[in-house]
Amino acid sequence: MVEKARAHFRLVIVDGRAYVEKYDRSFQTRDVFTQWGILQLLRRYPGKLPDLELMFDCNDHPRIPKSPAAGPPPPALFHYCGDDSTADITFPDWSFWGWPEVNIKPWEPLSAEMKAANRHLRWADREPYAYWKGNQWVDRRRQELLQCNVSDKQDWNARLYPQDWVAESQKGFENSDLARQCKHKYKIYIEGRAWSVSRKYIQACDSPALVVAPRYYEFFSRGMAPLRHYWPVRADAMCAAIKFAVDWGGHHQKEAQEIGRKGSSFVFEEVKMEYVYDYMLHLLTEYARLLRFKPIVPPGAVELCREELACPVEPLAREFMRQSEVRAPAAMPPCSLPPPMKPEEVKLLWAERANATHQVELLETRPLADSEKKP
Known about the structure:
Layout: E1 9-14, E2 17-22, H1 30-44, E3 52-56, E4 77-79, E5 89-90, H2 107-120, E6 127-134, H3 140-145, E7 158-162, H4 165-170, E8 184-189, H5 199-203, E9 209-212, E10 231-233, H6 238-251, H7 253-270, H8 273-290, E11 302-303, H9 306-310, H10 315-324, H11 343-364
Parallel strand pairs: 3-4, 4-5, 6-7, 6-8, 8-9, 9-10
Antiparallel strand pairs: 1-2, 1-3, 2-11
Helix pairs in contact: 6-7
């Protein structure tokens, strides 16, 4: 099952040391920063990880289709996201330790900057529009989103800006500081080729995130609920749905601000690096329990070490590694793993979330004057 999932690299942990056998080159430094994150996990919790062996894929789309109930189990592949039709095992993406190609800092220092920016500009003083900025060419729906921009004929309450990363890099990323993009009362999240690493940054602004019908999930997003942590936006009537959300928030400012606050609180508190590492530890421990063989170091593997990863990369990448480096083992043990949810609990959870989304769709069919009742 492990061999069938061959992807960008194989990770083997034996006696608390990590080894990587590389098969394919990933886009930019995704593989390097993913491996850096694994190395930091070992430094945070030395001796805690059992021996294991896994395959890791660094592309955008999940790759392993779910098997029929009566069929053989699917190969085990670790990846950044999944959807309802795939069985990829979700793992924190590289950007938690930094994305130097687009000048995005590691999550820990960046989240601190975003908290400070939120305190500096109160929600009530922000521009009353929905904001999005990004690469529109990675997905058709992003190009459709740009049709919701303000024009001489229509104002959909959206302010949307295409991002040319090549041009931006030539300018030193002077217009791409995420901590300075929390100036609007609403932020839009829309997926790229698959999921987008931008979700945590968008949710971190203390502004309600208008989430356009996502198909994919990363390791934390299934813990978020519509109308609690974000406002759901239907994809088949995107412009009208965005306009309605902003208009509704204007009439229900207290409730809208609460959605923004809870969304930010989720990513700041539930997705802080302490818990990211705990998730990684529990996930790898539970995975290792399923292995029916003793992992051994492959002949072509290279041991993960700080110098091996940091020395070949560019100066900005080295700086992000320095900022995200674990300096010493954790002073406290990892959080405890709760028991798995029962099937009926999972069904109830999804039913509640589907009902919340349906409530919004019902509100959108009525004039705003009739929608004063809280959803």
